[in-house]
Design brief:
The chain is 65% helix and 0% strand. The chain is an all-alpha fold and 190 residues long. It is elongated, with a radius of gyration of 19 Å.
């Protein structure tokens, strides 16, 4: 799959072959559901076709498609949050991907007696973390998920939620502080 295409020309007939796997992996890491990820990639290709005339060639095809996909993911979470149904976010502390959960990972007990016990404890930890995230004020939870779990860029979050970078970091700090307190009260001090 050579990507020797000039950066200012789109080749939609090659998108699926060249970018589908990359976009799917990008989406699955952020929505944690393969069917939703597939739908988002399809929506991305469709939106790309519809807006191809707006492509200015200032970025590669892949970068342009990823930017469309990011917006689709943000729209997906907005839709979920507007229905007051919080997205089910699962953080796995053992297969940490791109260091998901690294701010709390150091506090996870390191010695496990056996695999079954480890799996039970891990599932209970994830459930408690989900409860703590759900207890955050809605905007804190949304910002925390977008930045820490989904790893959106600061600029994208600020633009989509119409907030300043300093507001974003204050919300993330407050969310993390509240999550730490919640986890200490409900998990670590059991």
């Amino acid at each position: 799959m050579s990507q020797s295409n000039p950066p200012n020309i789109l080749f939609p007939d090659k998108w699926v072959d060249n970018y589908a796997d990359y976009l799917f992996n990008y989406a699955i890491a952020r929505v944690n559901n393969s069917n939703i990820a597939k739908d988002l990639v399809q929506e991305t290709f469709f939106a790309g076709l519809k807006s191809a005339k707006n492509f200015e060639g200032k970025s590669s095809e892949r970068t342009w498609l990823v930017s469309i996909l990011k917006r689709k993911i943000i729209d997906y979470y907005r839709k979920i949050n507007s229905k007051k149904g919080q997205a089910e976010i699962r953080m796995n502390f053992y297969d940490s991907g791109d260091n998901e959960g690294n701010w709390i990972e150091e506090r996870v007990p390191q010695s496990w007696n056996n695999e079954a016990e480890k799996n039970i404890e891990n599932e209970e930890l994830k459930n408690q973390l989900d409860k703590c995230i759900d207890s955050l004020p809605e905007k804190y939870a949304m910002v925390f998920k977008m930045k820490t779990i989904q790893q959106f860029e600061t600029e994208d979050i600020c633009k989509e939620l119409n907030i300043t970078p300093s507001n974003l970091w204050v919300m993330i700090h407050r969310a993390r502080t509240q999550l730490r307190n919640c986890m200490e009260q409900n998990w670590f001090n059991k």
